[in-house]
Amino acid sequence: MPFGKNKALAVPRPKKKKVAAREEAPESTDDTGFTGVELPLPVPARPEQPLAPSPGRHKRKHVQHECDELHIEFLAAQALDAEASKELTMQERLYQAKMKRIEKSQAGKRHGSPYGELERIYKAALELTGAKLKREIAESSTHNAEANWLAQQCRVLRLENSKLRRVMRANGVRAP
């Protein structure tokens, strides 16, 4: 069976017709929008002088680029910290379950050697300590990345403020 609708049963589509092109009307140059006497332009208080190119423009651009990179680094560190936090939570639950199981086995009759039991306790505690260490490292890395990013933001804002002060001095505006 062929795909699509049956050509014998379907209603034919209307054919496209050509539309005549529109003629553009010439714009009237007589209508200026003003009636009567035109008002003179206000005289500027000071003649406009072009500003000298900013000496710190490239520096600001470079510092802003570094700030963006540090923000991306901070977001990546934050994601790693969240992952380490989840892993720590899982290890804490696992440690609690292992300790409960070991306590129950100690309450009943002994299965296996006491040395093996101590080894399992030590191994569970070691895994928990490793997860805590990984979490602390990830958290400190996140805080360090955030501090670097915020310091870079301060540098960007300091450069922007110096630019604005320079523009205000050029325009004769007194800073408060």
Quickly list its features.
single chain, 176 residues, mainly alpha, Helix Hairpins, 2 helices, 0% strand
Account of the 3D structure:
This protein has two helices and no strands. The protein has helices spanning 57-107, 114-171. The longest helix is centred in the last third of the chain and has 58 residues, at 114-171. Helix 1 (57-107) packs antiparallel against helix 2. The protein has a domain at 57-171: Helix Hairpins (Orthogonal Bundle). The protein is mainly alpha-helical and 176 residues long.
Summarize the helices and strands and which ones pair or pack.
Layout: H1 57-107, H2 114-171
Helix pairs in contact: 1-2
Q: How much helicity do the residues have?
A: 55-70%
Distance between the amino and carboxyl termini: 84 Å
Radius of gyration: 38 Å
Main β sheet profile: none
Give the helix tally: 2
Beta-sheet strand percentage?
under 5%
Short précis:
The protein has 176 residues and is mostly helical. Helix 1 (57-107) packs antiparallel against helix 2.
